[in-house]
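S1.2 Input.
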Amino acid sequence: MFKKSQASYTDFLIGFFVLILITFIFIRVNIDLNSKNNNFQELIIDGTEISNSLMNNGYKILNWNDAQPQGRLGFLNDGKIIKENFDQFAQTTYDKTKILLGTKKDYLVYFEHDNKILSYNERQFYGKYDNINKIKSSNIVKITRLVYSSLHDKKVVKMIILVF
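S1.3 Output.
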């Protein structure tokens, strides 16, 4: 009359291939998630190091524009921007600042007050790009520090560092 639970080899092979496909997709997704987490952790670490470096007053400032730059970038002392150090930072090329900051990641620094981006010497952004809209990255870390700025009419402003 009725056949009970009869399976053919093709049913078995199709089921086996579906199981292999699901296993492959599961492993691939886990590997991708772990690599993205590692990249995000690297961005956080680099962003913290860049932020901490800029929050110091720097040293060997005269050597920042040499062919082989030496020293440490930084333009703050006790939370206040040192105008001379900031000017030196702003004049140093982006590639040299990356060497001095010890990072391989790209970054962008700007200042904000009351949700408005501030400019100094007709410049708003310091880093890889001159506009925030040019950043094309899937992972961006934003670090915000409060500083007292003599560059911007002596007010407390946000120094924002984007690492990507």
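S1.4 Remarks. The mean pLDDT is 85.
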